[in-house]
Amino acid sequence: MSNSIKNTNLEDTTICQVGIIVRDIERSMEAFCRVFGLPRPEVIEMPGYERVKTTYRGGPSEATAKLAFFDMGQVQLELIEPDGKPSVWQEFLDEHGEGVHHLGFQVADTGRVVEFLAGEGIGVAQQGLYGDLSGQYTYMDSAAALGVVVELLESFGG
Amino acid sequence: MSNSIKNTNLEDTTICQVGIIVRDIERSMEAFCRVFGLPRPEVIEMPGYERVKTTYRGGPSEATAKLAFFDMGQVQLELIEPDGKPSVWQEFLDEHGEGVHHLGFQVADTGRVVEFLAGEGIGVAQQGLYGDLSGQYTYMDSAAALGVVVELLESFGG
Fold first, then answer.
1. Tell me: the pLDDT tens digits for A82-99?
2. Exposure winner among A101, B40, B81, B105, fewest CB in 10 A?
3. At B3, is the pLDDT very low, low, confident or very high (cuts 50, 70, 90)?
4. Does the residue B127 lie in any domain?
């Protein structure tokens, strides 16, 4: 057995997103705007299964969420208010309360990275298309191994 | 009352550090190295009160931690294994288990930012010097307002 480290496990180890689960996105947005002096972002209502094909733990899911994004340097901070239906977001809120749910990484080939992580015992927890269908996100079940969910973000068309 | 947003609340809204509390830093480091293909960092044992003058919720604290740092683009990922003594780290582990504890921001003047945040109802939870005495960190009690602890990082001498 070799202990050598591959450099190609994820294509890019730059953290590009931090996702925080909140109970009330309007209240949390207001607090972030005040504390960080940032402009108020738009709240985006994620579409349902028919458009973004959300799968949660292997099955189709009607779960949606309200989202808001702040640019904080290289990192995009995402606030997520789950809608109460079963999802990784609602799971986290029920188990931990509000807090940082995931770290996001850009990938060019989700399938390859998912296959690599499966070999490390880390499966897919939830997957879906972006609301504008320009890409897809994949939440990996990495909290037990890494203390945090890894999100793979793939933009279609490069 | 004005709703205008100040741009000087924190001097820099660039997230420069993500801190994850773990139970076993050797096990977590190994998992991060494997998943991200990163070289194994050194484990740093934080010194005690006599050197770094840790204060926790207003009083001196002998709490220490084992630390390890990974560079992941602009963001430094910090793993923290608390030592069981009362600290913000141990608080988090006891209440939430492993997970993302804080987002770190560089500041030039900790006192000014602490004063601003006090006006927002956010107090200091823990403070101390860096192990090499080159700066100081301050954990703000911001989890109720923001869903995450904000850490102020000040390097002495600019």
1. 999 999 999 999 999 999
2. B40
3. very low
4. yes
Task: Note whether B13 contacts A99, CB cutoff 8 Å.
Answer: no
SS3 label, residue A74:
coil
Residue entry with tokens 């909140």: A22
Q: Please check the confidence at residue A1 and state whether its pLDDT lies above 50.
A: no
CB contact residues (below 8 A), chain A span 75-134, against chain B: 75, 77, 79, 96-100, 103, 117, 120, 122
- Strand-pair category, A149-155 with A99-106: parallel
Asked if B2 has any chain A CB less than 8 Å from its own CB, the reply is: no
- Closest C-alpha among B127, B143, B144, B142 to residue B10: B142
Distances (CA, A) of B130 to A125, A146, B36: 38, 25, 27
Total-model pTM: 0.93
Asked whether the beta carbons of residue B39 and residue A5 sit closer than 8 angstroms, the reply is yes
Cβ distance B147 to A100 less than 8 Å, yes or no, reads yes
Residue A3 placed within a domain:
no
Q: B44: domain CATH number?
A: 3.10.180.10
Measured at the CA of A12, the angle between CA B28 and CA A143, to 5 degrees, comes to 30
pLDDT single digits (tens) A101-114: 999 999 999 999 99
Q: Residue B144: closest CA among chain A residues belongs to which residue? A: A98
What is the predicted ipTM?
0.91
Please answer yes or no on whether A150 and B7 come within 8 Å at the CB atom: no
| Number of domains within chain A | 1
pLDDT tens per residue across span A32-77? 999 999 999 999 999 999 999 999 999 999 999 999 999 988 899 9
- Residue A1 one-letter amino acid: M
Share of chain A above pLDDT 70, in %: 94
Give A31: exposed, middle or buried? Use CB within 10 Å, 0-12, 13-18, 19+: buried
Under 8 Å between Cβ of B98 and B21: yes
A52 part of a folded domain: yes
